[in-house]
Amino acid sequence: MLPADHASGHFLGRAQTPDGPAVLSIRGGRLFDLTGEAASVSGAVQRRVFVGGCDIGPVEGGLPEGWSLLSPIDLQCIKASGVTFALSAIERVIEERARGDAASAATIRSQLEDKVGSGIRSVAPASAEAAQLKKALIEEGMWSQYLEVAIGPDAEIFSKSPILSSVGHGAQIGIRSDSSWNNPEPEVVLVCDSDGEIVGVSLGNDVNLRDFEGRSALLLSKAKDNNGSCAIGPFIRLFDDTFGLDDIRRAVVELEIEGPEGYLLKGKNEMAQISRDPLELVGQCLSEHHYPDGFVLFCGTLFAPTQDRDEPGAGFTHKIGDRVTIRSDRIGTLTNTVATSRDAPAWTMGIGEFVRNLAQRELVGKI
């Protein structure tokens, strides 16, 4: 799951041990338990506790027996930005106009691409050209709330999932059992401290219900925030002399979906095509908020699966048992299996249980 150059990089992560959650560090190709110095990843990021700890051994040896990988974040707020790529903007307008009906999406897609696609790809958000495009699209009856956040001054920023609810590499991801049109969203996830400084990056799956959000944008929380619907991992790659923000701007995030019936879908998310720079997205997320334990920010995706799965014109939707793999050369690989949110393992360790566990281990002062 680690990138090929992991021996030259620094990473943070988390694991479930028989005693409770542990904070992990990878450096020089070796795995360390940092919990005695920083009992939360949030605290490690805030205090820059990235070295030290108990040497577990080379990464090739894996985790100790009885340990399992968790999402690499804990007390950070989980935020997301949407409609940050031209294609995703068009697809959101399709959802809106199709009212969440996948069968009518293909016809609408061709109409919108002809009228909106070239224009939205050629303008910078909040520019004079964007304002002119908006005016023209309003006159043609083509305007949408999604185009507003795509090319207007304000990015879409929303709360994706509660603190401590994200799942990690190897876990099941959840879609609502009553959803008939849904998809993965492979994304870069920025990890920020309380001041909004980006300290590292991970991969994420912003699992999305297209039918719910398509019926009404007011159903965004039901479309986005469900049990198992937020996957992050495998580790946080920390910024250092070998890896930084420019590497994120050039990153390519690949997606592969392997269905239980033999279906295969591949796609990619190219960060070079994003319409708002990651620093701008972080600034808009920080805004007038306060995140004392830091925050992570999904950057949005270029990829929207339209490849038919069961019948012509029906497009793509998940099936139970889908294996979803998201990878980027210098960040790693995040793999999850699809279940319903009803049947996926329940989220049980909230903030209260997390603090009680650390108290029993006399680690609360190390948060």
Automatic annotation (TrEMBL):
<keyword id="KW-0479">Metal-binding</keyword>
<dbReference type="GO" id="GO:0046872">
    <property type="term" value="F:metal ion binding"/>
</dbReference>
<dbReference type="InterPro" id="IPR051121">
    <property type="entry name" value="FAH"/>
</dbReference>
<keyword id="KW-0378">Hydrolase</keyword>
<dbReference type="GO" id="GO:0044281">
    <property type="term" value="P:small molecule metabolic process"/>
</dbReference>
<dbReference type="GO" id="GO:0016787">
    <property type="term" value="F:hydrolase activity"/>
</dbReference>
<comment type="similarity">
    <text>Belongs to the FAH family.</text>
</comment>
<dbReference type="InterPro" id="IPR011234">
    <property type="entry name" value="Fumarylacetoacetase-like_C"/>
</dbReference>
<protein>
    <submittedName>
        <fullName>Fumarylacetoacetate hydrolase family protein</fullName>
    </submittedName>
</protein>
<dbReference type="Pfam" id="PF01557">
    <property type="entry name" value="FAA_hydrolase"/>
</dbReference>
<dbReference type="InterPro" id="IPR036663">
    <property type="entry name" value="Fumarylacetoacetase_C_sf"/>
</dbReference>
<feature type="domain" description="Fumarylacetoacetase-like C-terminal">
    <location>
        <begin position="198"/>
        <end position="338"/>
    </location>
</feature>
